[in-house]
Every structure is written in C-alpha cells, then in structure tokens.
Amino acid sequence: MSRVTIPLGPQHPALKEPANFSITVAGEKILSTSSRLGYNHRGMEKACEERTYIQDMYLLERICGICSHSHSTAFVQTVEEIAGLDVPRRALYIRTLIGELERIHSHLLWLGVAGHEIGFDTLLMYSWRDREVVMDLLALLCGNRVNYGINTIGGVRRDITAEQIAGALRDMDILEERTRYYIDIATSEPSFIARLAGVGYISREDAVRLQAVGPTGRGSNVAIDIRATDPYAAYGEVDFKVITDSHCDVYGRAVVRLLELMESYRIVRQVLKEMPDGPVTVKAPRKIPAGEAVSRVEAPRGEDVHYVKGNGSDKPERVRVRASTMANIQAVNKMMENNNLADVPIIIAAIDPCFSCTDRCVRVIGGKREDLGWRDLRRHGISWYRKHWGIDFGELNRKLHSLRGER
Amino acid sequence: MKIIDKLVNWSRIKSPWVIHFNTGACNACDIEIVATLTPLFDIERFGCILRGTPRHADVLLCSGPVTRQIRDRIVRIYEQMPEPKFVVAIGTCACSGGVFQGCYNIQGGLDSVIPVSAYIPGCPVRPEAIIDGVVKLLSTLEMKEEAA
Lengths: 407, 148
What we know:
The complex is a heterodimer. Chain A is α+β, with helices and mostly antiparallel strands. Chain A has helices at about 45-50, 55-60, 70-85, 90-115, 120-140, 160-190, 190-195, 205-210, 215-220, 225-230, 250-275, 325-335, 345-350, 355-360, 375-390, 395-405, and strands at about 5-10, 20-25, 30-35, 150, 155, 290-300, 300-310, 315-320. Chain A contains 16 helices and eight strands. The longest helix of chain A has 29 residues, at about 90-115. By secondary structure, chain B is of the alpha/beta class. In chain B, about 40% of the residues lie in helices and about 20% in strands. Chain B has helices at about 5-15, 30-35, 70-80, 90-95, 125-145; strands spanning about 15-20, 50, 60-65, 65, 85-90, 105-110, 120. In chain B, the strands form two sheets. A five-stranded parallel beta sheet of chain B has the order 2-1-3-5-7. In chain B, strands 4-6 form a two-stranded antiparallel sheet. The longest helix of chain B is centred in the last third of the chain and has 21 residues, at about 125-145. Chains A and B meet through helix 1 and helix 5 of A and helix 2 and helix 3 of B.
C-alpha cells in the first residue's frame, strides 16, 4: 500500500494548541510520525533575564495556565535556595494545598478533554461542571481562577482562614463522591474501556528509555513521582500513595489520573487538618546573592525542572525551564506507531500536552541538518580554521609527528 | 433594510458560530473559553457553537500574544473565514501583548496582525467576561439593524 504523509496542525480541531505532527500512514495504519513544535515559543527564558525576581515569578507563572502554580513554586524554591531563606511551615502547607487543588482541576480538565476526543461529550460536560467546584475554591483561596499568584519569594501572599478550611473540606466531599462515579465509569463502562484499551501502547522499557514523566510514565508502570522521590513543600509530612498502572496504554493513563484524584483529596484533607500556625512569609532581600540552584516539582503533567543562576543583582543571570511535556513528547511519536489514524487525537491528548510549556527555540545553522561524528567534526574544524584563520594543521601535524619520532 | 436582510441579520445574531485559535497563549484563556462552553456558564444558550474549521465560523476567538511563528498562520485562518467576520481578542496578551511585551519572539497584540472587533481584557479572562464581550459584540449588530 502506498504511503501518504498527512500534516496535522497547527490549526486543527483535535489540537487545543498550535503544534504540528506529520503522520505517515499506509491506509489507516500509522507507520511513523514526527512532531514540530515552536508555534508557542515566546522567549520567556530570555525575558526573565531582563526582569527582577518578583516580576519573573509572575512571568513564569504564565508559562502555562494549567500548571501555573507548579512553575511558580519551582522558581521560588530555587530562588529561596540561593538566598538561603527559611520558609515558614504554614507557607509550605498552603503551597502544597494549592498545588493539589491545581492537580485536581487539571486532572478533571483532562478527563473531560479525553472524553471529548473519544466522542464521549457527556463526560466532558459532567467533569467540567464538577471542575467548577474546585475552580470556585481556588478563586476563594487565591482571588483568581487560574494563574493564582499566591507564591512569593519567602512564602505565600495570602493566609487562609478557618471558614475557608471548613468550606474546602465540604468541597472535597462533593468532589470525592463525583470522582467515585467517574472511576466507576472508567472501570465498568464497556465502550469507554474498549475505546481506550490497547491504544497508544508504550512498554515500560520504552517509557524509561524515552524519559516519560508524570502520569504518562506511571501509566506504563514507571513509579516516578517527585512528590515521593524528592519531597518538596510539605509533601514529606503527608501520607499518600504513588499510583501506577500496568496497562501501558491510554486506558492506563486514564486510570492513573482518576486514582490520583482520590490521593489528592486525601492530601488536601491532611494538609487542611494539620495546618500549622504561624506567619506565612519571611522578608526576602531585593538582591539575591550569586549562586545557582535547581528545583524539581511534580506538576499535574509530570516533573517540572527549574534552574536559576543569580549574579548578586536583583535580576537573574540565567533561568532554564524543562517542563513535563518536553520530556513526554518523544514518547508520543513512539506511541502512535501501528495505531489507527483516528486514534491520533486521543493519543496526543493522553499525555495531557501543554505546548506553551514546551516550545523551545532551536536554531538550525545553515539550511540542512546533519549529524556529525567526532571524525567529521574534526575535519570540519580543520577546514574552518584553514579557511578563516589561514592555519594549516597539516604542517603542525607533521611537526608533531616528527617530534614524537614517527614517520 | 429589506425583509431578507433583516432575516439574515437576525439569524446571524442568534447563531454566531465560533472558532478558537491559540496564538501563543499560556492556555489559561483557552481553558476559560472551554469553561464558557460547558454547563455552568453555557454560552450555547446564545446560539454559539464551537466549530473545528474557520470556513464554518463567524467569530474568531483568539487568545495570547501573536508569536512570529503564528503570524502567517493567523492571517491565513482569518482569510479563510467567510464575510462578515468578527475577531475577539481574549485576554490581556491578545489585547496588547501583556506580560510578554518586549519578548523577542512576540509580535504584539492581535490588532498588529488582523483587525479586531472586540477586546476582552483579563489574565485570564473570566468566563462571565467572555459572555459579556460576546453579547456586546452581538448587540452592535442589533444596533446596525436599527440604524439601517
């Protein structure tokens, strides 16, 4: 059967964000895919170098509107590490609380999007209706539905009151009951299971080799969760399980996200009950001393890494972000092999992609791309220096050889 | 205004089909647009329905500052839409560039690339504000009808 290459995106009903996949198919079967990113590249890492640390925090929160708290937490943790600040425990608990509420809203959002991609629009409408419960709670605690702006260097900006805690506990009961219903659908509804099982298979070995993180990796039985392996904020003091699943397909990823919701409710309840008293912020210096630090945070989509290098002024010298979709995007191309073309939207949606987190600037110098081995690189270097500096390495080489006593 | 024009204008006001395109946003405005379509806010009661292709759409909802990669694509999408067409800039970034002003890969607000009919500021825009903006846009059509 002849091969056809189908472009998907940047504007496509199946994509919520601009990205481009070029999919080679024979009939309905996908032979190979390649992804092209960069439509959302805004140049934020460079922009951070021109803004102060406080401005950077608000800017980095807007890398991605869905895991905004994870990005700002990772950034403030690095800055606090460089500045040697001791963050109050109450602030750490509030950060954990908002982080988990963000995970709840993100996973409910994903459930709806996944339902939409498989033609189960009722699930979209149900889960997004229930998501409004947690959105209202976030608006109550932070003052904004998305892009919460609760972190600050040295703590958090808002304290929470006893009435808010009581309200949050009530909301958790509502959400837990609804999530039980969704888990019931996911485990017993035959059409849901038949549509997702076996789609987008990636084995555990491949998931490790391609560095899948977060629910994508956990759906392939890779037990990585930064909350457990490298605890930050108050995660070291709360009890929760790392959910894994051995289905290794889209169904596995759906089950992982649904069961993680239940764990998130447990974490939120523990955090609310054990919230320590005290201040919520310490005073941070305007100028951060020279130094560098790396911080890892488990965003709803997986591991989020921030690196900051300070130079003693009020602006960082370098900020580097590795968001979770960047790690997962390689696995998508592998997952799509040998699937049907109609499964592409749900396979892309199953990693919960966030291209605004991911888009990086890659500059290909010259028109064509080529792989250079060491021998080629050496040859390239010799010819470049001969052309630009008039240095003849042949003469030097002969001298070197004669000094060594070789021919 | 002839009776047929009145009928066309009435149907235009009562069923504006929308298309959503992310021009480099952080996803926050995009999820609020989807939230507007879902049961709690339910913009479908004004006859709005989300379409997949620009050729079916009357209103283009754009979120985010225009990146250099997107610039040519957004113009092509705009040109594919049938007349009369309306563009709504959703979020502070789409209105003016917002926090991304001065970034090397940012073109600026949406109006630096295509004509914009309505601006809805906010970071992110609340679903209530999106509904308000869309209803205000539709009410300008009603006023046009009265004036004619």
